[in-house]
Amino acid sequence: MASRKEGTGSAAASSSSTTGPAGKGKSKGGSGDSAVKQVQIDGLVVLKIIKHYQEEGQGTEVVQGVLLGLVVEDRLEITNCFPFPQHTEDDADFDEVQYQMEMMRSLRHVNIDHLHVGWYQSTYYGSFVTRALLDSQFSYQHAIEESVVLIYDPIKTAQGSLSLKAYRLTPKLMEVCKEKDFSPEALKKGNITFEHMFEEVPIVIKNSHLINVLMWELEKKSAVADKHELLSLASSNHLGKNLQLLMDRVDEMSQDIVKYNTYMRNTSKQQQQKHQYQQRRQQENMQRQSRGEPPLPEEDLSKLFKPPQPPARMDSLLIAGQMLKICRDTLGSMK
Amino acid sequence: MATPAAPASASAATPAPAAAPAAASPSVPVPSPTPASAPAPSPAPAPVPAPTPAPASSSDAAAAAATTAAPGQTSASAPAPAQTPAQSLPGPALPGPFPGGRVVRLHPVILASIVDSYERRNEGAARVIGTLLGTVDKHSVEVTNCFSVPHNESEDEVAVDMEFAKNMYELHKKVSPNELILGWYATGHDITEHSVLIHEYYSREAPNPIHLTVDTSLQNGRMSIKAYVSTLMGVPGRTMGVMFTPLTVKYAYYDTERIGVDLIMKTCFSPNRVIGLSSDLQQVGGASARIQDALSTVLQYAEDVLSGKVSTGNTLNHFLMDHVGFPQEVKRRIHAEKIIKRIECLI
Question: What sequence ranges are listed for the domain MPN (chain A) (predicted)?
Answer without folding.
Answer: 39-173
